[in-house]
Amino acid sequence: NAGVTQTPKFRVLKTGQSMTLLCAQDMNHEYMYWYRQDPGMGLRLIHYSVGEGTTAKGEVPDGYNVSRLKKQNFLLGLESAAPSQTSVYFCASSYSFPGERDQPQHFGDGTRLSIL
Amino acid sequence: AQTVTQSQPEMSVQEAETVTLSCTYDTSESNYYLFWYKQPPSRQMILVIRQEAYKQQNATENRFSVNFQKAAKSFSLKISDSQLGDTAMYFCAFLSGNTPLVFGKGTRLSVIA
């Protein structure tokens, strides 16, 4: 049972470099999300998708782009990385917004991204 | 927009004692869900307990229980018989039928032997 898989788990970038974080889920979920977690700030929603081919902005979308070309994958892109984007990034997925009784959202294990 | 407030950045409790973590929220929705998540140092997000707003009975899961006060928009988590493994960040979260999870900023709980 893979659930939600994030790659890579760690990455160090230089300012101005670009990269893509991949999130894959094998539960046939319609909804997928990207969050960032910073000390003292909790998890904040960057972008989300309610189905293949759709994306929507969350609370902190600036500096990020996303794509959902396949139902099982949700990509988060940083076109020109900045030190302020140093964070731990979490992907999540769900069948719907209320989700299942015991798992409103299934989370990946996170990606620690450092931008120098 | 919904907001979730956790007013206790850090708390500590002696092993075997009881501790209560506070959470308040703001919403105009009438039907929604509230959750407590635990995040240990491994970074995993682990669902601890869930409460549906339409249910008056407070949810319980073994040593974890909530005090849900809908009128006051309060949703506190009580951990009984605290164990060393309960040491973690705890996040309160809100979800309605129209929006993804909204998280509070978290409370860091330390259980002391």
- Count of discrete alpha- or pi-helical segments spanning 4 or more residues of chain B: 0
Oligomeric status of the shown chains?
A: heterodimer
What's the helix-strand series of chain B?
EEEEEEEEEEEE
What's the alpha carbon Rg of chain B, rounded to whole Å?
Answer: 13 Å
How much of the sequence of chain B is in beta strands? over 45%
Q: Unreliable runs of chain B, pLDDT <50, ≥5 residues?
A: none
The major beta sheet of chain B can be summarized as: 6 strands, mixed
Biggest sheet statistics of chain A: 7 strands, mixed
Total strand segments of chain A: 11
The mean pLDDT of chain B is: 94
Question: Which pair of chains has the greatest number of interface residues, and how are they split between the two chains?
Answer: A-B, 25 and 24 residues
The first-to-last residue Cα distance of chain A is: 35 Å
- Contiguous low-pLDDT stretches of chain A (5 residues minimum) are none
Cα Rg of chain A: 13 Å
Features:
heterodimer, A: 116 residues, mainly beta, four-stranded antiparallel beta sheet, 11 strands, B: 113 residues, 12 strands, 0% helix, 56% strand
Element layout with pairings:
The complex is a heterodimer of chains A (116) and B (113).
Chain A: E1 4-7, E2 10-13, E3 19-25, E4 31-38, E5 42-49, E6 56-57, E7 65-67, E8 73-78, E9 87-94, E10 106-107, E11 111-115
Parallel strand pairs in A: 2-11
Antiparallel strand pairs in A: 1-3, 3-8, 4-5, 4-9, 5-6, 7-8, 9-10, 9-11
Chain B: E1 3-5, E2 10-14, E3 19-21, E4 24-26, E5 32-39, E6 46-52, E7 60-61, E8 64-69, E9 74-79, E10 88-96, E11 99-103, E12 107-112
Parallel strand pairs in B: 2-12
Antiparallel strand pairs in B: 1-4, 3-9, 5-6, 5-10, 7-8, 8-9, 10-11, 10-12
Can you put this structure into words, describing what you see?
The complex is a heterodimer of chains A (116) and B (113). Chain A has 116 residues and is mostly beta strands. Chain A has strands at 4-7, 10-13, 19-25, 31-38, 42-49, 56-57, 65-67, 73-78, 87-94, 106-107, 111-115. In chain A, strands 2, 4, 5, 6, 9, 10 and 11 form a seven-stranded mixed β-sheet that branches. In chain A, strands 1-3-8-7 form a four-stranded antiparallel β-sheet, with no helix packed on it. The termini of chain A are far apart. Chain B contains no helices and twelve strands. In chain B, 35% of the residues are buried. With 113 residues, chain B is mostly beta strands. The A-B interface holds A 31, 33, 35, 40-45, 48, 58, 88, 90, 92, 97-99, 101-105, 107, 109-110 and B 6, 9, 33, 35, 42-45, 47, 50, 91, 93, 95-106.
